[in-house]
Amino acid sequence: MNSLLNINNLTAGYGYGPDIVRDFSLTLNKSEVKCIIGPNGAGKSTLLKSIAGILKPRSGEILFDGEKISEKEAYQIMRLGICFLPQERAIFPNLTVADNLRMCAYSIKDKKVAEARIKEAIEMFPVLGQRLKQIAGTMSGGQQQQLVYARAFTIKPKIIMIDEPSLGLAPSLVEQTFNHITQIASSGIAVILVEQNAIRGLETAGYGVVMDLGKLVFEKPAKEVLQDQSLRELYLGKALEK
Amino acid sequence: MIEFLQVLILGICLGFVYALMVSGLTLIFGVMRIVNLAHPILIICGAFVSYWLFILIGLDPILSIPIAGLVVAALGVVIYKLIFERNAAQQTYSEMTVLLTFGTAMVIDGILSFVFHNTQRTTSPSYATDAIFIGDIFIPLAQLYSGLVSSVIIVGLAVFLKYSDFGIAIRATSQNRTSAELVGVNVKFVCLISFGIGCALAGAAGALVSFIFSFFPSRHWEWIAIMMSLVVLGGMGSLKGAVIGAIVLSVVSSMVGAFISPAWSTMVFFLSLFLILIIRPKGLFGIQSD
User: Fold this and answer.
1) Is the pLDDT of residue B35 over 70?
2) Is the pLDDT confidence value at A121 over 60?
3) Where are the transmembrane segments (chain B) (predicted)?
4) Residue A6: how many CB atoms within 10 A of its CB?
5) Interface of A with B (CB under 8 A)
6) Which residue ranges make up each domain of chain A?
7) Which of A118, B14, B225, B271 could serve as a FRET partner for A52 with CA atoms 20 to 30 Å apart?
8) What is d(CA B269, CA B231) in angstroms, rounded to the nearest whole number?
9) A1-81+161-170+197-242 falls under which CATH superfamily?
């Protein structure tokens, strides 16, 4: 049986530069949550960008629901049901909150469904409802985070990929963000998470995937990764000493 | 006092026409970071379409706006496909567009000059030489109509950009292409359509220009500098800025022309361009680059 997402021998890189992701394979099943960890420069973000279609793979293929997506445009991949939240806040800072939400629902053809979904998202994040006319970039960091995650509930993708959700956030916001991610996962959406804060990421995920120098080192249930002393020393680094 | 009001009203009317002339320029820059130096020659193309429709079948230039818009939009789409689309991913794209559009302007100018020669033309509908009086203020109908029609088109454009889904997608794309793509916007298509809309606006402006100014193919060189000063004052990429910049400079240059000397009125544009670039290079409402 096919998994939801199959990555087969993917190789990717930028411009004329070296391969950043090398011969990487991974599968993701429905409702699974996988956390990719690894040192800086391991190719984690590059991997997500290639899946999302922002970066065209050099070789290998990516199958989504059995359909080859590695040659499609990013907007087509998104419309199939893979939502990517990149590192930089994925909102439009100069648009109002209402327009941002409308853009979240842009890919939904049926306008009534789109409106209903936006309403749902507002119920989930009432703060957004109170600030519909505000320019998104003038909201606080936490509110902007909510706007980012509102997208997941508006488009209800099959897979959501999140790149470094806790990067640059205040500790209280990190907690809030991981709550959103848990919420998303429990609604049946499969999640691929790339996270510097490896321990927090692994606690949220079902599986831990360790990546280094563009290659898959291994994949294990997240609990095992967290418990294995030698793995912790090797890949979780300083987090251990705390 | 009456003379002042008179000049003010004419300046505002002309300002709206200028605003229409630059609205497409600023839209195209905002969405695609193309500095379209070919925009003024596209306005001349629109003027020629209206001119010939008037000469050949007697169609009023205001009524020929949609046709001039469509013809120039079609031309723009061809130019976009041929020249810009394949280069859009290049790093130095924005700088490169200055040369590419400059070249495009020269080619179109050359063709038009070859076919129609550089003789001064102007469309002369009945109202072109007519005027109305409000009290003692004298308002030429050509200026009044062209100002009104321009403001209607600009308001239409603003409403489209603010409220329609596609308009919001255009604004989203101009803020961040990748983010737009990631919410499912077909960015290539949005760019193509925006370029088309920008060129249609040039065509529409051309139809109006055809009866308020005399035009000839090489006149666009003079307009490039004026139009650049208008958008730079307002801020490249901002429609609101372009409209405000156009009206302010148009009024000021009319005032200078009336009360100081007509010889100095064009100077206003260049002087303001000079000052803005020194004091506030991103203009009044300029967008920040990515």
Assistant:
1) yes
2) yes
3) 6-29, 41-59, 65-84, 96-117, 137-161, 189-217, 223-249, 256-279
4) 17
5) 52, 54, 73-75, 78-79, 83-86, 90-95, 99, 102-104, 106-107, 151, 155
6) 1-81+161-170+197-242
7) A118
8) 11
9) P-loop containing nucleotide triphosphate hydrolases (3.40.50.300)
pLDDT digit string, tens, across residues B167-184: 999 999 988 888 999 999
Amino acid at the residue B214: S
Q: How is chain B split into domains, by residue range?
A: 16-212
What pLDDT, on a 0 to 100 scale, did the predictor assign at position B160? 96
- Residues in B closer than 8 angstroms to A86, CB to CB, are 178-179, 182
Report d(CA B25, CA B36) in Å as an integer: 6
Look at residue A240 and tell me whether its pLDDT is greater than 50. no
**Phi/psi class of residue B121: alpha, beta or left (left: φ > 0; alpha: ψ in -120 to 50)?**
beta
Phi-psi region of B229 (alpha: psi -120 to 50; beta: other; left: phi over 0): alpha
Q: By CA distance, what is A108's nearest residue in B?
A: B184
A77: Cβ contacts below 8 Å, ≥ 6 apart = A51, A52, A53, A64, A69
pLDDT band for A168, please (50, 70, 90 cuts): confident
Candidates A74, A99, A102; nearest CB to B182: A74
Q: Name residues whose C-beta falls within 8 Å of residue B238's C-beta, 6 or more positions apart in sequence.
A: B26, B30, B283, B284, B285, B286, B287
Distance CA A238, CA A188 (A): 33
pLDDT band at B234 (very low <50, low <70, confident <90, very high): confident
This complex has an ipTM of 0.88
Please report residues of A whose CB lies closer than 8 A to that of B188.
73
Structure-model confidence comparison of residues B287 and B255, the more confident one: B255
